[in-house]
Amino acid sequence: xxxxxxxxxxxxxxxxxxxxxxxxxxxxxxxxxxxxxxxxxxxxxxxxxxxxxxxxxxxxxxxxxxxxxxxxxxxxxxxxxxxxxxxxxxxxxxxxxxxxxxxxxxxxxxxxxxxxxxxxxxxxxxxxxxxxxxxxxxxxxxxxxxxxxxx
Amino acid sequence: xxxxxxxxxxxxxxxxxxxxxxxxxxxxxxxxxxxxxxxxxxxxxxxxxxxxxxxxxxxxxxxxxxxxxxxxxxxxxxxxxxxxxxxxxxxxxxxxxxxxxxxxxxxxxxxxxxxxxxxxxxxxxxxxxxxxxxxxxxxxxxxxxxxxxxx
DNA sequence: TTAAATTATATCGTATGCGACATATATTTG
DNA sequence: CAAATATATGTCGCATACGATATAATTTAA
Lengths: 151, 151
Fold this sequence. Notes:
2 copies of one chain form a homodimer.
Chain A: H1 14-33, H2 39-51, E1 53-55, H3 56-63, H4 67-79, E2 83-87, E3 95-99, H5 101-110, H6 112-117, H7 125-139
Antiparallel strand pairs in A: 1-3, 2-3
The structure holds a DNA duplex (30 and 30 nucleotides).
């Protein structure tokens, strides 16, 4: 009706996405505190638990973040001895990030986090499936869907 | 299969929500720069364009944020003269936030933002509707849905 | 009716997240 | 092969976002 309708919060897709991300992350924080991880550190560790060794560019692509966000964060995870950082000898531009044994041990404690949050009354199984599909459609917009996270 | 499956990035709902929020906000930033607004400042202004006058607690509830996030942000918007901040004389704990004429003028420029982003190949109309429903289900989890943003 | 509890903001410290730019290494090209 | 380009990471400054805690004003209750 009104030409300003597109400016109403309730007509936005971005705003509830932003609010949902804030809300879910807030919910994670107290659980992650027991692992001495922040939410962003946790998603990095999830990649590491799965891959064991990656380079920084891999992480940037997998996490849809920027190198300058990950860079200081990786150093913190190194200080916590959850991972190691070394230059690639083949191509000295690359940083090779590898899980340490201490980082691997953390995986055992971490499984409680998704299990405990799965109890939350977020969405039904069907809704969650559709929700994930729509999210990856947004995330991968403009690109070929070559992302293995979206299956 | 594996007991660690819940820790895989691809099995998470939180991660793609987080990634989608980051991605969409990155897309907004250059457009909002023309309005001298950040994304968070923009969502505050959307409330102000709709309501003209609110108090800080209203904003916190509407935006699903904390007062300590909004507080410095409101001061910046005041410095930009997009809104005014005054104590409520009835109840001096309350802050009354009001749109200024300069803030109202900005609304005219701002309508280009959602119109221009609507061109993006995000989701179909049907998908967007379902996506929004699922987001508000997450956001309002555990509460009665008394939120007028979710209709 | 004043002391306790509640409510609404404010302040502080930490950790992102981004754009802009700089640096180091590798690759391509003339 | 030397110069230009491209690629991967690093640095800086700014703006959130949060939990923890403090303060000010109001309401409740003993």
